[in-house]
Specification:
homodimer, 256 residues, Jelly Rolls, four-stranded antiparallel β-sheet, DNA-binding
Chain lengths: 256, 256
DNA sequence: CGTTCGATTGAGGAAGATCAATTAATGTGG
DNA sequence: CCACATTAATTGATCTTCCTCAATCGAACG
């Protein structure tokens, strides 16, 4: 978009940087588990099993609950007043859902499960009451909201400043790192979105998504499993990071 | 981008819809004033005058304060790990700043004043303490965070689903409505951003911003004042809304 | 009054959208 | 389990939007 697309093999990363990143994710995974434990203890939330395609809440619906994802995967679909609709966020284990409803007293988007999962349901009032007794819980709540703000802005930056291939690469990186932070396998990703949905999320057409994935595969940054192109194997997440960087800082022209 | 650009004069809006929208903004303006009063009473924040160009906090700086804007105008500039930087949000009277710092314990962006203004400075801990005593304050805080999440997503949608001209129109509409909600004059806007900054915020080049503004002016959706092209006169905000809609729902082909 | 920075406008080119055809996966009823 | 229908994905050809490069103009400022 703004920057020239650079189609090049990615630069490698040092082993030190690699293990630092891995350690960071490991502690993050522990934190997520701790937070879930705290929520469970303090709020005794109602558990709800959702299946792929089920809607947790819908845009316009009266706000009242907050949700925490214990397992599974959600997409949030925003609708504008003029009828556009778009995937604006993805939610993984440990993420909260429903914050968007607090401001106006009604949810601003649809929360749709992309997989079977378990959601913890809590009345917002009950959360507030528990927070009043347990400051740690309030801190956790605010951290979650703050993280959501930060993530939304990162999405905006990706869409605004990266060319299509890098945007897809950054999307895969984000997905892989989200799994890594939760202690899940990161080399094999099952994309539970169609090309059209990915494109909708990233601000491009499904054809461009398909072409970008093909190009990334041709450059060995990803590979498809033998059965189906829904599963993506990422041999090295850092290579994706480097690829995005190389697209931003185009062609250093043998500078050192 | 995703949708075909439609260059047409905008459809008018009913007087009823117009006044409903105006009333909505008036009550919003009162709410903002009330919220500011509540904050002032409960927190007795330290006041700080900022001048255009001054930085309230910077990315990476240790988090500790939250801020509320009593007057003036701020931009938030996000920086990615690979060096890209982008305007990701604008802040008006009554808006909070600093939420992005809660999650990681350090701010994630630069907050830069675009105008002389007054900022209220509060320790995050002090805010939490006050919230513990006054549930209304906690509600206000959460509403502000929720609104920020919602706004960020609207930005994302605009960038992902609108062609350049509509994106600029939507930007002007957002700015005008932000002023309207605060009881300020909405027909005359002083853009305190260069074309380059606007383009950076909207994900397009400064030339495209310039051309889009020229086209909007040619269609009488905006006009420039005699002195300078920094001031934009918007004769009818609703016409901008209609223009964006017409770009989304392309050419109904004389349907009715 | 020249210098500088920002804005405008034009010409050409490139990334990505659109249209279209083909192939692969998924599902359905017999 | 297969034939068929349906939906998703890929790939190619063409067209549009917007980016890039460049020149000009205007405003602000020392």
């Amino acid at each position: 978009m703004l920057n020239p697309a650079v189609s090049q093999a990615a630069a490698p990363m040092t082993a030190a940087a690699r293990s630092a990143r891995a350690a960071e994710f490991q502690t993050a995974g522990q934190e997520i588990a701790e937070v879930l434990r705290l929520i469970q203890e303090q709020l005794q939330p109602q558990r709800r099993i959702v299946r792929a395609g089920e809607t947790l809440y819908q845009a316009g619906e009266r706000f009242g609950n907050l949700y925490v994802l214990n397992s599974g995967l959600f997409k949030l679909i925003n609708l504008s007043s003029d009828g556009r609709e778009q995937v604006v966020a993805l939610k993984f284990r440990g993420d909260w859902l429903g914050f968007d409803g607090i401001a106006a007293g009604q949810y601003a988007c649809d929360a749709v499960a992309m997989d079977t999962g378990e959601v913890w349901v809590m009345r917002y009032d009950a959360v507030l009451a528990a927070c009043a007794l347990r400051p740690a819980l309030l801190r956790v709540l605010h951290e979650a909201m703050s993280r959501e703000i930060g993530r939304d802005r990162d999405s905006l930056m990706s869409v605004c400043s990266l060319p299509a291939d890098a945007r897809v690469a950054d999307f895969l990186r984000y997905w892989a790192e989200s799994l890594a932070k939760r202690g899940l396998r990161t080399d094999q990703i099952t994309l539970r979105m169609t090309r059209a949905e990915i494109g909708n999320y990233l601000g491009m057409t499904l054809e461009t998504v398909s072409r970008s994935l093909s190009r990334l595969a041709r450059q060995q940054l990803i590979c498809f499993t033998e059965k189906g192109r829904r599963d993506v194997h990422i041999p090295d997440v850092m290579a994706l990071v480097s690829f995005v960087q190389s697209a931003v800082a185009p062609a250093p022209a043998t500078l050192q």
